[in-house]
């Protein structure tokens, strides 16, 4: 098992009711699997709202690109402080941050 840490910000933090969590995942688990399956499984009462908030949806279905990968909405997902592909394989001690869009002016 591989242990990874997830930090939530903005609306997702409010939705889940937690700031951060620890997940024990199988070796070879991708960032996409964590976001699309593992987190919603831990929070089934808000899994639909999670998908609608994090991903782009069309008529209630998560939109996918031509490769079948879910399309993120305006949220930024980082892995160890850097932008990452959803296909990245998670490693022991990785830190995932899920942040809302933010602007400045």
Strand and helix map with partners:
Layout: E1 2-8, H1 10-16, E2 20-25, H2 31-42, H3 47-54, E3 57-58, E4 61-62, E5 76-79, E6 82-83, E7 95-99
Parallel strand pairs: 1-7
Antiparallel strand pairs: 1-2, 3-4, 5-6, 5-7
Mean pLDDT: 92
- Assembly classification: single chain
Q: For the record, give the distance between the C-alpha atoms at the N and C termini, rounded to a whole number.
A: 44 Å
CATH architecture classification name: Roll
| Pattern of helices and strands | EHEHHEEEEE
Q: How large a portion of the residues is in β-strands, by DSSP E?
A: 25-35%
Helix content: 25-40%
Q: How many domains comprise the coordinates? A: 1
Structural class by sheet pairing and helices: alpha+beta
- The strand count comes to 7
User: For the record, what CATH class applies?
Assistant: Alpha Beta
Low-confidence stretches: none
Q: Major sheet, described briefly? A: 5 strands, mixed
Helical run tally: 3
Please tell me how large the radius of gyration is: 13 Å
Largest beta sheet: strand ordering: 2-1-7-5-6
CATH topology: Ubiquitin-like (UB roll)
């Amino acid at each position: 098992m591989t242990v990874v840490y997830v930090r939530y910000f903005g609306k997702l933090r409010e939705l889940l009711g937690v700031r951060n969590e620890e997940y024990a995942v199988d070796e070879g688990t991708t960032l996409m699997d964590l976001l699309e399956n593992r987190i919603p499984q831990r929070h089934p009462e808000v899994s639909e709202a999670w998908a609608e908030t994090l991903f782009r949806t069309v008529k209630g279905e998560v939109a996918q690109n031509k490769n079948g990968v879910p399309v993120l909405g305006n949220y930024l997902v980082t892995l160890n402080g850097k932008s990452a592909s959803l296909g990245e394989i998670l490693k022991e001690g990785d830190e995932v941050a899920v942040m809302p869009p933010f602007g400045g002016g």
